[in-house]
Fold these 2 entries.
Entry 1:
Amino acid sequence: MEKVLTRNIGLAQKPTDLKAYEANGGYQGLRKAMAGMSPKDCQDVISDSNLRGRGGAGFPTGMKWSFVPSDDKCTPGHKYLVCNADEMEPGTFKDRLLMECDPHQLIEGMILAAYTIGADISYIFIRGEYLVAIQRLRDAVDECYAAGLLGENILGSGYKLDMYVHPSAGRYICGEETALINALEGKRANPRAKPPFPQVSGLWGRPTIVNNVETLCNIPHIIDRGADWFNGLGVGEDAGTKLFGVSGRVKNPGCWELPMGTPIREIIEEHAGGMQDGYQLKGFLPGGGSTDFLTADHLDLAMDYNVIGAAGSRMGTGTMIILDDRTCPVGMVLNLIRFFAHESCGFCTPCRDGLPWSRQVLQDIEEGRGEPEDLETLAYQVKYIGAIGNTHCALAPGAMEPLQSALKYFYDDFKQHISSGRCPYH
Amino acid sequence: MSKKEMIQSDIGSVLSAQEIAEIDAELAHIPYKSGAAIDALKIVQAKRGWVSDECLQGIAKYLEMSAEELEGVATFYNLIYRRPVGEKVILFCDSVSCWIGGCDDIKSKISNVLGVDYGETTADSSYTLLPVPCLGACDRAPVMMVGDDLVTHLDDKKITELFGSAANGSAK
């Protein structure tokens, strides 16, 4: 398979600087756009490519961009492009690779995205712990300003764009795009009510697009090589390639660029080398900590957004977490719910008070204090905390996904904890 | 002395000229002063390790916001420290992939060797131990950060190499 996003990324290879990036075809997409493509031309190519957001929700990128009002339909002022580089979803480790190893690919994608939507200021909102990526991105941005790829009159086109690398001060909720915008404005990162959507009223009340790192890294290649080429990369119903990852007790945990629609079995058994000796696969979260469990029965499904959705889960970030037969499913869900309870921004009640309640019930069950009616309580919590619309954002509903599917697939484990008064895995 | 000059000389007694210059550089591309709140907290913390009440009040005054509002911002973010921390902060990942990889035992070992639990600093101020959301290195779990360094594939041996062991008295 042709490597696209990771073509410059090799083991033990230094990250690409501007010279190396350009020598391998970098900034071709930008040169092509600046030489003869209008923002509308770029918008059409991205819409036709069927690129969907790689941050977890899978929203069509072209459609998202199309909601930004044109200059004649909004008051004069700035428009913003923000790269969401706040990778913090439990079990997700793909954007770190893209930023540490090929920073210019992201920057080229951002310049093209900003040009398409008419933005004149862009931010890379990156988690503060990614120190290596922060430094490499800053160096790369400096190289771009020096080479006329950022700043005034980019490549002689008359287009102007400034770019800032903005390290975050923490908190998982900043990955939610309206919370991220509040953090960029120097406020507490409580998500905002929608509408208005950021495309219309985002950063400082101005039109703003927030896109994930991996999404933006696709843009230069699509502009350079076209929508048909990109559509042809997937082996299932979705377009392009994707960074898929596996962690947990497999022989070779890691992250690989593969075609969209690659079967789960191939990812786990071939690329991750299958389970470690002495361990069996009991279940897995297909795309990070806030996706529903799937089981061995689902291994032959394709990693496509709608296929995984139809199976009752979400492709999320595409980085799977494996539950093995010697790890307690109740303990695993407890770990996840503890995380989400801790990371709640505290703004609305089902999340602030509901998640700690779930955590308490799960902890009681895991530590042998569970009662039979606790299972009804958990089902009640899933129903009311998990319902979209009961909360301000998707954090609490996302937290309920692994819990509701654990109750479905591992119900006997929960019952056994309660009937025997202890965790059978310890 | 004008009111503005008085406020600035007051702030100048708390914030250094370099800190104020760095905050001004952020303000250059931010439309409202309070928009630089998090940046300013980080700038001050970078120099001093943490944000004292005095500094918080100085920043609030400089950004023309109330100290209470800035405190609300400062305490929201886990990488802003409102208490003194050790020379190095240990950001320990206890999210799901590291948990599957046995991070609970590693954390007990660290607590045992250093004599601190989450939120505590060693007696000699070398280390502060804090939990952190998934560090995005799950293929190398369990992991943590010690100061600026990511440490991967944690096991007992690695913890002993880093921090010594409680038994031989070399714990810091």
Note: Chain B has eight helices and four strands.
Entry 2:
Amino acid sequence: MMETDKLRKADIFSGGIIFLLGVWIVSQALKMPMKDSWGGVQNVWYVSPALFPLFVGAMISLLGALLIRKALKTVGLAGITAVITWLTSRELTAFLRTGAMMRFYTIVTLFASFVFIQIPRVDFFLSAVLFLLVFITTFYFDVASLLKKLLYFYLAGTLIMLLLFATGLMAAWTGILPFAADWLTLVFILTYAAYARRQVAGDAPLSRKFRLSLILAISAPFFIGSIFKFLLLVPMPTEGLVTIALDTLWYSIF
Amino acid sequence: MMIFDRIAAFFDIVHHLAMDPLNLLILFGSVLMGIIFGAMPGLTSTLGVALLTALTYGMDTSLAMICLLAIYVGGTYGGSYASILINIPGTAAAAATALDGYPLACRGEGGRAIGLTTTSSAIGTTISMLFVVSISPIISHFALQFTSFEFFLLAFFGILISGTLTSPDLVIKGWISGFLGLFLACVGRDQLQFYPRYTFGVPELDSGIEVVPVLIGAFGIPQIIQVLKDRFQIGETQKLQRIIPEIGTVVRNVPAIVRSALIGVGIGAVPGIGEDIAGWVSYGTAKNTSKHPETFGTGELKAVLSTETANNACVGGAMIPLLNLGIPGSPPAAMLLGALMLHGVTPGPMITFEHPTFILEVAAILLLASVAMWVAGMLLAKQVVKILRIPSQIFMPIIGVLCIIGSYSLGLNIFNLYLMLPVGIICYFLTMMGYPIAPLVIGVILGPMADENLRRALMVSQGSFMPIFQRPVSLILFIIIVWTICSQFDWYRRGKERLMARLRGRRRRPAPPESSRRQADDA
């Protein structure tokens, strides 16, 4: 959590957003049937689907306004001016480039790409290996310059994948080579591992960390995924190259 | 006779559960997993329950409850390991334990402290179990008289009180958080008229927001971001000697144990308030009632005993409103509610009719979990402590994968992930700006109950709000809600102080002399 003074300044803006959200909830609720007919049934206000959202929206707006009032009482108008000055100054750029913010971008990028790009299109085991390999290496190395390099490398690879998916090229390739997306991800994993290995070559503690990261990134998805897939009988979000191979192996044994 | 029947049924269930080797295996495994989750700073028992919910999806209800309650009990206790050995609370529940636990470990009495926390946690859980068994029928009986107005006010009160007591900054933020949860609960087709609300034409939103993935996102993602962004490092671990059960210290402090257990049960029963508050309140009470309060903070065994008894007693306390009213008493209990709904069990006053032995079963599991926790704590503490050496940069990404596969597996829907991640990131920003997450979660869970009951109540009363003032329970709840809101404003406090000062002044004012009194009488 932030310090109290910073919090109050931020409250003016978070209160504003919350107030506007409340207004939006109310405006949407007003479009819902209040006294008119819905589905052939004549409505009365107290059974209207708008009743509860109206109450919730109004309360959110009221509380947002109260928060702004409280924050303004504490920091005054000077507080708003200070925040606006800060938002337009170079300090903001410097803040957005701090190590902590870089780590934040990395976490969000990794999660977003895993959830929105890889999971719906690539075999779960492969996408999880890629996610874990990048995630563990970038943070476990704990070197700011390495984090940046590895993140940019991963971003470049992900962008290429996204382009291939968006343009329909991947679908066309799948017609020629089955599981093309999975093969491409496998190539991505190997290239990333080679790149990361090269970055830490010559540094014994980092090399040791790389080896451990690699072992965990490969073993953890297989352990977790196998429990869900074969013990809890949960089909994976996308089943491709590895899942089919594991299926064949599992059902040939059991 | 009914009481004896109930006791007999309880022990019958305990015997039945304990005789199945699979139950015992799951029980010990889950308790151990809970201890590990509790011991690892950055992981919480709520997250443990959330992740395990996905794994229990395919199990029968009884086995799932063993799994989830055991991890809850173990997680609440496990937090004390990190508190005592590295002075960083493994969970918020064990924050107060660190004050005296760490000095004990520095003095070379870490084993003694862990032995004491193990025994007192087991006692706390057991005492709270007694309350679950004895109080539940009474609450259930009263709750059966509740109508829709009472349920609406109860849900509203739960969100308000949770927002009031869990907010780390301004109380308004706690309330905002609760109302944001209520808004999330509005998304989807409404239950009475099936009208789509805030769905933006997305068919996946028609059935509303899936509770468990949202909860996993709300608790898991902010935790991962926070730990990794702030480069959380675990410090030097104090050496752990032989673990001693400390039965002698426990026997000498029976009054403190009973008091702490009562505090734990009481705080646990208040909707949405977790074990951390129980720990702090119990610590404060133990210090205030101690003959040597100056020893607190320097390694006082009584302090460790009080906090650990209270936070584990909170587990049973949280079960009381959950089972009887359908209102979760703590964040992990909110997760349990989600899990119960997945298994087709709807907690509330009707539970005694729909599942007559369910409450006894929960109590029996709590008893078995406290025994399993004690055994695991005594035998495996030294091994569990080794886990504290694993860097967070390694286990947090793996927790991320668990959050994702867990959210997906509940409903086998990738859309759950599209919802979980934004909710998690928004919750992270809310946490950073001092908004508590527990009221939001309670809001998501209690939202449908509040919405349905408000409209149903108004339907019965033909749009009149008068029954709130005509029904005693409604009126009491209404007064408490108004008082909870008003007591947070300056004008209320100023008015109260002025009134108190006037009353005090009237009491202190000396009696007027006889002559002046006579003059006044004449006038």
Note: The two ends of chain A are 51 Å apart (CA to CA).
